[in-house]
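Protocol step 4 of 6: structure prediction from sequence.
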Amino acid sequence: MTAPRLEIDLEKIRHNAHTLVQRLKARGISVTGVSKASLGSPDIADALLRAGVSGLGDSRIENIEAMRRAGIAAPMTLIRSPMLSQTRRIVTFADVSFNTERDVIAALSRAAQQAGRTHGIVLMVELGDLREGIMPADLERTVCETLRFPNIVLKGIGSNLACRSGVVPDARNMSELSRLADSIDAATGSVMTVVSGGNSANLEWALGGGADIGRINNLRLGESILLGCEPLHRRPIEGLFTDAITLIAETIESKTKPSRPWGTIAQSAFGERAPTADRGPIAQSILALGRQDTDTDGLTAPPGTEILGASSDHLIVSTGGRHKPVGGEIAFQLTYGALVRAMTSPFVAKAFLKGG
């Protein structure tokens, strides 16, 4: 089988998604399965839907279009603020989009009218992470404006935390989102049917200690399903597989070399400095995988193997006291950032395993 490749165990992904769906269902929270890291893979979308997610969410309309072309008929939400240049595509292929800008909602309204459709809107609220979101003081005005647009249905409000600034979802900011939903209901008479509290970073709050869920009735989960860990501290989630996706690379050189470079030392191709410690001769292998393929800083090597460095196309590892044969393979675990980069790379094959 070709390398480098991602080996994707669909049954483990389905198990992870089903486990989280059931745990959150007991708390009155539905799960939107986030497909952006999979580039809209129909196989992963199918695994998420079989696990019981209420719909699919993606940040790229191109991925949503790919899933539609593959026959995926589930409700789909564009979870990144729409680009004005894509509003026609968005109302054609996405049922709902997350929004913060009046001009964009107006354009979605016009596109929906022209297409003879209605389009759902979730207004995103800024709760401190300083990525997307309407300031709370401006929310009521934006809700009233949104309600006036034809062919637009206001579904509810949402928030996003822990992505840009690492702000932790907790009782305080989640209570604020619930309070805002109550306030909007009272002020406008329009019930917020969706209150989307956030992403995988919300799991500790939602499941960890019997927190008052309030109005929060939806979470958008990607990393926790695909990698079996929570993103605040990257700790494994009990009962989930952390090896549903692995990255396999092939050895293209295996030699004993000094551990310390010689000659005049300047910056490497990526602005780094070589280590100066001399560990003596080591068994060094080079793998056909580099920074052009993935975030090499986000890889975890198997026991007995140490990542020494990387360039665009080469990953250099120490294999302890033994040589890895040329043509041999090494499997790595990935962080979410490394997974997204590897999925995006045209040089990394994707192998879907259906046996579990």
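Step 5 (inspection) to follow. The domain at 245-353 is CATH 2.40.30 (Elongation Factor Tu (Ef-tu); domain 3).
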